[in-house]
Hints:
The protein is α/β, with parallel strands linked by helices. It folds into 2 domains: 2-117, 3-Layer(aba) Sandwich (Rossmann fold); 126-282 and 312-338, Dihydrodipicolinate Reductase, domain 2. The protein is built from 13 helices and 15 strands. The strands form 3 sheets. It has a 7-stranded mixed β-sheet. Helix 1 crosses helix 11 (278-299), helix 6 (129-139) packs parallel to helix 9 and helix 9 crosses helix 12 (307-326).
Amino acid sequence: MLKIGIIGVxxxxxxxxxxxxxxxxxxxxxAIADPFLDETGEQWAKxxxxxxxxxxYRSILADTxxxxxxxxxxxxxxxxxxxxxxxxGKHVFCEKPVDxxxxxxxxxxKAVQSSKYKYQVGFNRRFxxxxxxxxxxxxxxxxGTQHIIKITSRDPEAPPISYVKVSGGMFLDMTIHDFxxxxxxxxxxxxxxxxVGSVLVDPSIGKAGDIDTxxxxxxxxxxxxxxxxNCRRASYGYDQRAEVFGSKGAVEIGNDTSSTTLLSTxxxxxxxxxxxxxxxxxxxxxxxxxxxxxxxxENNTAVPVSVTDGLEPVIIGLAAKKSLDENRPVTIxxxxxxxxx
Length: 341
């Protein structure tokens, strides 16, 4: 039985703890650590059978019985805890992003490459049943040569300004998932980015130095083009759609809804709105990514989302930010050269 410690038990840490306890065979959460853990949190942990509870994550790293850790703490701690965990001899699952700083990601990459431990990055949409079906169709050649990839990603409501200020910006916080999806669905790499953006949802986001609405176009190494449209607020719910169009046809996915009910009357045709929150939309995906992490450890096989997969969307995000600031296309090579990659 693989023993797991979770570092950071905010919203996503709790999701993983509950998912592992209910659905992941061959693994159990034996310890959690969070500096902000209160009595309610302790009771929640004990209800899942978690006995080792601490406010200091180093207690998990020092526990020789723990095989793997899930880094679910704040983004600014991800790379440092990752390095400490690898040094302590733990397999690591790290929520995205590994870091906003490319040099710090490079440090983690070096540590992973020189160790025997598995390191997986938490890009959960790769494990969603809808996106996987598109990936499988494209990989099987069903749509022929790729021409255009379209991704729509819109949140039901904007995050608090306190979060916006520390998020790293829209491209490295929200759009980073879509950059990863372009790579995942196409099986190719982005070579050039052009981004336009504006503040249309909340003026406070602009005052905080960010945007809330954007369109990003990309050229891919395989010759295809990609378009992402983002907005921090969609009044009708969590809007997640994608299409890959090619020489033989197209494959697309729509939004998940609470039911497939379609009411048709003289007044019109009414369907369910998309699920309102990302946890509802991707709960299955969060469980599946941990299941595959556990399998990679048990079988000593490659993890499905590597530290390199964690780096590339950050590079694309930095290119998008530079494009927005300078109003010009920016190549990925330009950004990578800056960091000696």
